Amino acid sequence: MRFNHVANRLAREHFDTIVEMLATCLGFATLRRTERAIWLRQPGSNIDLQFSRSNTTGRDADKLRSQVSFLSDTPEQDLVVLQEWLEARGIAAQVGAYSDREFYLDAPAAFVDFVIEAMTPDLAEYGVEV
Questions:
Q1: Rounded to whole angstroms, what are the CA distances from 68 to 35, 71, 81?
Q2: pLDDT tens digits for 31-77?
Q3: Arithmetic mean of pLDDT over the chain
Q4: Dihedral of the alpha carbons of 30, 32, 82, 66, in degrees to the nearest 10
Q5: Per its UniProt entry, which superkingdom is the organism in (predicted)?
Q6: 115-119 and 102-106: which strand pairing?
Q7: Is 102 exposed, middle or buried (0-12, 13-18, 19+ CB in 10 A)?
Q8: Whose CA is closest to 75, among 121, 41, 124?
């Protein structure tokens, strides 16, 4: 078997707005779309994201442990830009920190089972050849 994609859930009422944010702010392209899901890829990457529409009203209390993660030289500032983009569209969002090099963006009404993480590139230097 070969790795293909990771799937997460978005609140149905904010699905299209989050997809628009990923396309507009982060350059994601749509690979495939159905009534209940979308597959996205950021140019230059080799991992795809699938988001499914969810009717779930309760949120996972431990969702900070489940992230869609990005590398950035300015992780906190980049997440603040996304936070402001969401808030301009009526979706409450907040930026928090795991450490001084790892930050997260949560939009509780939209992200069902994950947060968006941004971390400095040195944290992805594992020293392992694959």
A1: 22, 11, 16
A2: 999 999 999 999 998 889 999 999 887 777 788 889 999 999 999 99
A3: 94
A4: -140
A5: Bacteria
A6: antiparallel
A7: middle
A8: 121
Query: Of 22, 16, 53, 23, which is closest to residue 37 (Cα–Cα)?
Result: 53
Specify which residues 43 forms β-bridges with.
none
pLDDT of residue 3 exceeding 90, the answer is no
Give the pLDDT score at 130: 81
The three-class DSSP label of residue 123 is: helix
Structural domain boundaries in the chain: 5-54+61-124
Q: Give which of 74, 68, 122, 115 is closest to 96, Cα–Cα.
A: 115
Query: Thinking of the domain 5-54+61-124, which architecture would CATH place it in?
Result: Roll (3.10)
Sign of the C-alpha dihedral computed for residues 84, 53, 31 and 114 taken in this order: positive
Between the CA of residue 75 and those of 79, 86, 98, what are the distances in Å? 6, 17, 12
For residue 104, pLDDT over 90 is answered with yes
